[in-house]
Amino acid sequence: MIRNLMRVILLFACIVLLLSFGQAQKRAVEAEGHEWWKHAVFYEIYPRSFADSNNDGIGDLKGIDSHLDYLKDLGVDAIWITPCYPSPQVDFGYDVSDYENIDPMYGTLKDFQHLARDARKHDIRIIMDFVLNHTSPQHKWFLDSASSRASARRDWYIWRDGKGPGVPPNNWISGFGGSAWQLDPKTGQYYYHFFAVGQPDLNWRNPAVEKAMFDVTRFWYKRGVSGFRLDAVDLLFEDPNLHDNPVLEGKNDLGDPNMENKYNDKLPEVHTELKKLRKVADENDAVLIGETYTSNRDELKEYYGDHNDEIQLPMDFMFCEVNKLSPSDFRTQIANAESTGGWPVYVIGNHDMTRSYNRYGDGQHNDQIAKIMAGMYLTLRGTPVMYYGEELGMENNDPVRKEDVKDPIGIAGWPAEKGRDGERTPMQWNDSSNAGFSQAAPWLPVPASYKTHNVETELKDPNSVLQFYKRLLVLRHQESALLDGDYVALNQDNRDVLSYLRRHGNEAVLVVLNMSNAKQKIGLDLSPEGFPSAKAMPLLTTLAAPPAGRLDQVALDPFAVYIARISQ
Ligand code: GLC
Do residues 385 and 289 touch, judged by C-beta distance below 8 A? Predict the structure, then answer.
């Protein structure tokens, strides 16, 4: 009887608790009128390369802290810090040896607390990178797991017998080259690592692993974190029967056979886990950003969850695959992102791909093209995730000699694959040596263009890429049409000019981007969109003589950006 009563009381307490979490989130939405992450501009920081406060050539948390004013002034609302936990740095932090601490090279937990406090004062939220698929072999869980076949944590990782002497359990290939299996001579079994040998995969089918990892998220939520970027989340589960993957024709840049990762990538179980992670995120008014590589619209839709109960911001990288100034390709990708029913996310670069400045640039008009790209992805309906230095027009600085390469992918794949060092070089603060990043030689060299493309110099130049970003981000925060308006594609047959309207009630903002190196003329009839006698008031443009008033004859210089408020 008493036991039953206790059960009822417990159940009641749980319901009250759940309801109050739900209420807290609802209240936050009601107060702001929207979920906070829908209006936020996110900014990715690679901590090794942002700012070095102790002059050891490697960036750190105090360095980030000292530049919060810059970020606020730029118009950033949330920073995503790539992994800064203790790590042997085999993959520069993506090999974590302790999820609940800070690597001494970046500072201490106390420094993190200071950063969190100062960020709050600046109204900037912090997003941590959650490397949940794998750990470092130096993590105490792996050390224990590898200590003997009888270890209580043996099943925390994926251990299997080989098929025979020197033959791994199956044909799976590592993303970093070679077999995805590593023989451990001590216990005579292989462990699975999708990435480097120094990144053994956790076994998410083991409830103890799941619990430990959820506890990690709570640890950081308690310290004021507003969400996580979920690293390599597609890879959480593997086929328990370890079927061989289908081998495709040809070889990849690392010299391995091409393969369809049918049995170790994007397994349906990933979605079950995402739902659970989302629940904890909701309890903390937090956002989940997914490293969810897909160019498939239906797959993208699935990441949001059938009931919008998985990832709020799945990054799809569809723009990054366009790699040229193609209005029609961008239109298609925008339409894909718009059609899922979820809130779109737009990204043009990150620490794993050549900088957008080089990918879209033609080598002659790169600054203009950088403004076009900003003019596009920062005015679309959705949340943008910027990459540090993009706002300066920072360019890649790829290594020229194999012995200079730091990235394990570049070491494995040289010379066909030079790795990712080029896009991870130090932030360019000024034109002094090492671009003002550090007084010591930085861990990666800055490109020669730092002399002109740096914060200090660009702040003085009204036409710089940085000033353009700043003005654009002011607009983005001010114009309700840019924050909440619909996306309406215009002149869809035009092969040179991308134009669209962001429409919110009686207000609208028009965006016109000439993606060609030639003058263009377009006529815009906005009557079907509810503006029969539309008048334009330029808000931000690179045109010397921007059209104001009527829009039936808009003359555009090569690579022009024209953003205007529309009224009746
Ligand atoms: C993600 C990261 C990448 C890292 C990999 C392994 O793809 O973005 O930098 O190498 O995961 O953790």
Answer: yes
CA dihedral 48, 53, 55, 56 (to 10 degrees): -40
Q: Which atom of ligand 1 is nearest to the CA of 95?
A: 12
pLDDT per residue as tens digits for the range 145-179: 999 999 999 999 999 999 999 999 999 999 999 99
Q: Is the CB of 315 under 6 A from ligand 1?
A: no
Centre a 10 Å sphere on the Cβ of residue 187 and count the other Cβ atoms it contains: 17
Task: Check pocket membership of 291 for ligand 1, CB cut-off 6 A.
Answer: yes
Q: Rounded to the nearest whole angstrom, what is the distance from the C-alpha of residue 232 to the centroid of ligand 1? A: 6
Beta carbons within 10 angstroms of residue 246's beta carbon: 12
Is residue 231 flagged as an active site residue?
yes
For residue 474, report the distance from its CA to the centre of ligand 1, in Å.
Answer: 32
- H helix intervals, 33-59: 36-39
* Contact present, 292 and 265 (Cβ < 8 Å): no
How are strands ordered across the β-sheet holding 535-541? 486-490, 497-504, 507-514, 561-567, 535-541
CB within 8 A of 61, min separation 6: which ones?
47, 84, 102, 106, 107, 111, 112, 114, 115
Kindly list the distances between the CA atom of residue 538 and the CA atoms of 203, 529, 546, 567, in Å, as whole numbers in the listed order.
Answer: 55, 19, 7, 11
Atom of ligand 1 nearest to the CA of 91: 10
Tell me how far apart the alpha carbons of residues 414 and 518 are, in angstroms, rounded to a whole number: 38
| Band of residue 549 on the pLDDT scale cut at 50, 70, 90 | confident
Do 205 and 268 contact (CB within 8 A), yes or no?
A: no
1-9 LR contacts (CB < 8 Å, sep 24+): none
Report the separation in Å between the CA atom of 179 and the middle of ligand 1, taken as the mean of its atom positions: 18
CB 94 less than 6 A from any atom of ligand 1? yes
**Residue for token pair 């090492």:** 434
- pLDDT by residue (tens digit) across 86-142? 999 999 999 999 999 999 999 999 999 999 999 999 999 999 999 999 999 999 999
